[in-house]
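sry for the spam today, last one i promise. struct tokens for design, 345 residues
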């Protein structure tokens, strides 16, 4: 039986100590678990921690964008060396893969990226992935590594995406881990405080839920778990810990999945209630149904569609530029995106 793809994302908060330094004991535990899982899965490891590893070498570090770029450049070789040394003990070779948003938004580059990863697995190499912070543009960078991990999971038709979190899973109002969630709906989203984020990472639970919804809607199981046990990833996959989000049935073809995920680039169109309903009924998006626009984009570019609950409901290839849409927001019967160019997620 062919090996299925497993994407594992480690945030800064779960692999660093109170001072922000990488916890080698945690790294060794994760590597040991992944080494066992590699017999059953083709593994992609998305790891944060580069900035945390490198910022101590940047004098008067304040966390500015340029300082983060420098810290990441310093920290990436430190981080990959830790993984290389640990995986080597289990007989595995690692490859560092620094990705940019354009690798997913440009379909030709996207297919090349896919071929490279397949070659990694052919030679029993485990790719350790992070964003290429040094040259990533502010407007075209990943929102966080939750997004990067999700796009990789979609790119390779992964069976499961594992998001490791410091709280051990998704918590209800009583701060108890919810073991099983059938779908990420408004009830689930309402439990999350907007703006919540971890001390060392950029992402929070809202980010994780946003990309969990995207992944599950495209047919991928998502597991949120902690790293407390001796075999944390295996335990989560066996539903012994963490939260299991069930995949939904998806009939989208590969190119539609790419459109629904990797091609999201330059902008966001927020819809009002009426437009959200119309789009859900497979109708075209009219300018009068647009509540607001973020970013700048030309006609023919792909943007994400955001519903009233601040969640991505789809993507669209626009007929008009952001400038043209803003000029015609109150004009009736002007099509911003045709129904055939909208993919719901």
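last one done:
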């Amino acid at each position: 039986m062919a090996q299925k793809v497993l994407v594992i994302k480690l945030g800064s908060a779960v692999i660093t100590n109170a001072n922000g330094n990488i916890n080698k004991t945690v790294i060794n535990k994760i590597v040991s678990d992944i080494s066992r899982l590699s017999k059953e899965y083709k593994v992609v490891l998305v790891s944060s921690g580069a900035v945390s590893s490198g910022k101590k070498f940047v004098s008067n570090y304040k966390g500015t964008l340029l300082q983060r770029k420098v810290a990441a450049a310093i920290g990436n070789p430190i981080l990959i060396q830790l993984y290389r040394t640990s995986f080597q003990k289990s007989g595995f070779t690692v490859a560092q893969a620094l990705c940019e948003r354009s690798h997913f938004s440009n379909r030709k580059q996207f297919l090349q990226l896919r071929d490279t990863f397949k070659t990694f697995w052919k030679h029993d190499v485990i790719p350790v992935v992070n964003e290429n912070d040094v040259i990533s543009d502010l407007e075209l960078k990943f929102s966080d590594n939750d997004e990067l991990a999700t796009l990789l999971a979609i790119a390779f038709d992964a069976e499961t995406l594992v998001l490791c979190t410091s709280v051990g899973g998704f918590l209800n109002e009583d701060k108890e881990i919810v073991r099983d969630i059938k779908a990420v709906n408004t009830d689930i989203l309402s439990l999350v405080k907007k703006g919540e984020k971890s001390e060392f990472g950029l992402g929070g639970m809202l980010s994780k839920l946003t990309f969990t919804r995207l992944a599950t809607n495209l047919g991928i199981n998502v597991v949120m778990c902690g790293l407390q046990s001796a075999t944390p990833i295996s335990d989560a996959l066996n539903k012994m810990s963490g939260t299991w989000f069930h995949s939904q049935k998806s009939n989208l073809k590969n190119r539609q999945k790419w459109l629904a995920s990797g091609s999201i680039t330059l902008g966001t169109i927020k819809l009002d209630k009426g437009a959200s309903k119309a789009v859900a009924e497979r109708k075209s998006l009219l300018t009068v149904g647009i509540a607001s626009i973020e970013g700048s984009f030309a006609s023919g570019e792909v943007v994400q569609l955001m519903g009233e609950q601040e969640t991505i409901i789809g993507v669209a290839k626009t007929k008009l530029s952001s400038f043209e849409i803003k000029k015609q927001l109150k004009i009736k019967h002007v099509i911003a995106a045709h129904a055939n160019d909208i993919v719901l997620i």
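The two ends are 30 Å apart (CA to CA). ok im logging off now
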